Amino acid sequence: MVRTFGDFEFDDRRRCLRSAGRPVRLRGQAVDLLSLLIERPGELITREEIQRRLWPDRNVEFDHSLDVIVSRLRAVLGDQSPSPRYIETVPRKGYRFIEPVIAKPEARPPNERRHLWSRRFVTYVAVAILAAVVALLFAHTRYDKFIPPQRAPRSQTAPRNMRPSKPGRVRRDGR
């Protein structure tokens, strides 16, 4: 799911934030907090809920850690003015994402799907050809072990020194 708000776009699957098509550096718990806030825009997300989501089994200095993460997130979003555009603080209760969020499923263009399929097909064909070449090389180097050599059949002809000579030639053995 891709969620758009203001000049930003957040991809849930890739967990990345973009501004005007360019990636914005945002990591770790700041990504988790942003994801939580934009899942439910306009709703109050309590500090306790944030603590359960971001620090489920840890004992940390929660208040300070959350304040640091919210500050980092606001800095990345450019939301540090006295009148916030994106994240509203509800004192001692929690935070609310106040910018409208448009959620749309991530859809690949049709030609990208075809490109992915053809790239996979080419990869499979290349692997199959490589496997066939390796198999042929292996068989060629081991051919004598797989197939016993064929011996030439013994001929019924006389040994060489006993063959008749051509007319007009004298053989060494006197015949």
Features:
175 residues; alpha+beta; five-stranded antiparallel beta sheet; three-stranded antiparallel beta sheet; 5 helices; 8 strands
What does this protein structure show overall?
With 175 residues, the protein is α+β, with helices and mostly antiparallel strands. Helices cover 41% and strands 17% of the residues. The chain is built from five helices and eight strands, in the order ββββαβααβββαα. The chain has helices at residues 28-39, 47-54, 62-77, 110-141, 143-146; strands at 2-5, 8-11, 16-19, 22-24, 44-46, 87-90, 94-97, 102-104. The strands form two sheets. Strands 4-3-2-1-8 form a five-stranded antiparallel β-sheet, covered by helices on one side. The protein has a three-stranded antiparallel β-sheet with strand order 5-7-6. A hairpin with a 2-residue loop joins β1 (2-5) and β2. α1 packs across α3. The longest helix is centred in the last third of the chain and has 32 residues, at 110-141. The radius of gyration is 39 Å and the shape is elongated. The protein starts with a strand and ends in a 29-residue tail after the last helix.
- Indicate the proportion of strand residues: 15-25%
Class from secondary-structure proportions: alpha+beta
Q: How would a crystallographer describe the biggest sheet?
A: 5 strands, antiparallel
Low-pLDDT runs: none
Radius of gyration: 39 Å
